[in-house]
Amino acid sequence: MKRVQANLDGRLRQVAAFVPPGCRAADIGTDHAYLSIALAAAGQVTRMIAADKNEGPLEAAKRTVAEAGFEGRIELRLGDGLAVLRPGEVDTVILAGMGGELMAAILRARPEVVADLRTLILQPMADGEELRRCIYESGWHIDCEALAEADGRIYEILRAVPGREKMPSAIELCLGPCILRERPPLLQAHIDAHLERLERIRRGMEASERAAASERYGEILERIQALEARRQRMRVSDIMGIMESFAPKRLAEEWDNPGLLVGSPAKEVRKVYVTLDITEELIEEAVREEVDMIVAHHPLLFRAVKSIRTDQPLGRMLQKLLAADIAVFAAHTNLDAAVGGVNDVLAERLGLRNVVPLQPQEEEGTGLGRMGELSETLSERDFIARVKASLGVASLRLAGGSNPARRIRKVAVCGGSGAEFIRRAVFLGADAYVTGDVKYHDGQLAKENDILVLDAGHKPTEELMVGPLADRIRKGIKETENITVTAKIRTDDWLITV
Length: 498
Prior knowledge:
single chain; 498 residues; alpha/beta; Rossmann fold; Udp-n-acetylmuramoylalanyl-d-glutamate--2,6- Diaminopimelate Ligase, Chain: A, domain 1; seven-stranded mixed β-sheet; six-stranded mixed β-sheet; elongated
């Protein structure tokens, strides 16, 4: 017998996903029975009833069931709503593709059938608020909700189970209590759809002086305001505020250039990249992925710009960023100095304890570099091995000369370029100093002071902050926001050992 596969769109796939395995189900208003066939084919149901009140759709369903080879496995019934069912005949009812008010009327019309059900799977085309209110008034509650997209439209799918719970708030009835709690990716589009509908109603009512003075008009305005409050997106300024809260600009060195370098603080933000460096490749990816903001450690604009030539790398990058309206923010030496910033992460990665700033600033715990102790004394060889393993580097440069008899306990660190603090590390009694960008005469200084200086590279000693920084931003974002923050780690380096 010829079999055809029921092709379910995103809406019906989500409806099917909510159906409990092994249940006895009835699809009321089955139309072509595509959902019933899919559930039976997957072995998801032990009994499947497909019903419709109109003969035309039911005949279409019979043909589809026959073509799929499911005659005898799917029972087809003609009737209105739950009148086609006897109490206890099924434990799950599916209502999909009709208005919420109609669904509520169907459920209220046959309380004796509803009383024996264990699950309701509901996909209203409109009036979801009325349907949710009916569910809670009937002694049921919603335990799961989802949003699905099909044919350019957003659909809401509800699963309800018996058990009386507190009636949700008005905005929860409108948008869905579980949807608001879980904030799926389609939430913003869901809110926008409600706003568009209410704005149409508002404009229509404003055409009538009597309607505009009615209580209903006031209710519409209140609902629009409530939805707008949910719709309010975070802006670049909000991300800047999160950064300022733990890496304030005042901690930066005078010569530095942190802060918002490209874009407007008022820009709305949905996607954020966090990175060490901004490259042309990263910008191109950000454009493709529709990223709104890039938070970088190294400032894209550092020295005074006297010209912007788009045939040069910097000019091209600025052109692409501005054309795509991507904001760029940098936290440089302020992030180095901050509590929990680059140097604290580096010290933690190396297993240091009793950590204090290497070059303290006025605010407690802040400053460039860190000084701490290992939990145990290590040989020079073992310490070098620990640094390599901790930073994920295959090689590093040793300055000051190797001394197999050297023992390491007190360690200073400074992410990035920190050779200027070698004397400070010596003064504080460090046995070893881990940093990057060590030059020839820095090595000579280390040799003269008998301190092991390890140049682990600028990138490896700083990029380890990218992940924790992304986490800090995520924690600072309001729970009501649906924003993606991605840590971007480069796999290449400007400098390699060959």
